[in-house]
Amino acid sequence: MDSSNSTEIAHDYPPFFKIYKDGRLERIAGIEIVPPSLDFKTGVESKDVVISPETGVSARLYIPKTTKESQKKLPLLVYFHGGGFCIETAFSPQYHNYLNSFVAEANVVAVSVEYRRAPEHPVPIAYDDSWAALKWVASHTDGKGPDEWLKNHADFESVFFAGDSAGANIAHHMGLRVGLDGLAGVKLDGIVLVHPYFWGKEPIGGEDTDAEKRGKVEVLWRYTCPATSGIDDPYINPGTDPKLGSLGCKRVLICIAEKDTLKDRGWYYSELLGKSGYTGVVEVMEAKGEDHVFHLMNSTCENSVALLKRIVSFINQGQA
């Protein structure tokens, strides 16, 4: 192998990562982690659990302080972090802080899934790991399973999946798999897709038609999913998935941002569901003047607070 390849950059995605010609990925952002804790600001407590020692799949669990004051079971949120399938982690400071705030505001139990990332573990491994995590969660129904927090505090009749960017993509596919395969003991009430990472070969809406920019998205997708059929693969383009109408929940909330490159894909997804035979309710919320995952970059701004409250309202709808 040409030794120069080890230092020559093939693709640069500032400020997140670089891909070298030898196939190596240098992660620049999303590499910091923080331990679980008792968050003194919110009263939310967290801990880490290993789901599969063989694969290393794990999760961070969160419970609100109200669990100490009431025996009532709480809705269960399963969260999938973003990062293009290749950066970030469930243990990143921004996700840890976001889940603390979310759990406190929504009064839910949360499981934040730590799936394996590309390129070391190419897609669809992230989906397989996420499904393994969901089966582990489902093992706690009827008072069974190894984790006391889930057994004592989670209501498996009121379960939600959520994620941002690539995590929203995963949440969609997990919702689809529940609809197709079922998840014994778990009632999936709804899914929340925040700035979902979907794409396609043909530009839609106001998407950039610049071939170079669109090509960069395709290069990233092929890098994270080498076995893909292309940018119209159902993994990345739900418009090509004949099983889309099988989504296994009764409600969907799609959150988009006005300046996000992926905005039109979010709107398109809502239209696709309407044409697919899906019989549930689909809601869309657009944040004006904001860009991709703005709520993680600045969690206290007005639009971030409004986004959080909208998702919380969606989850708590119909709760006694």
Task: Jot down its keywords.
8 helices, 3-stranded antiparallel sheet, 320 residues, AB_hydrolase_fold, hydrolase activity, Lipase_GDXG_put_SER_AS, Carboxylest/Gibb_receptor
Question: How does this structure look, described?
Answer:
The protein is an alpha/beta fold. Helix content is 30%, strand content 22%. The chain is built from eight helices and eleven strands. It has an eight-stranded mixed sheet with strand order 4-5-7-6-8-9-10-11, sandwiched between helices. Helix 2 packs across helix 4. The chain starts with 8 loop residues before the first strand and ends with a helix. The model has no long low-confidence stretch (mean pLDDT 94).
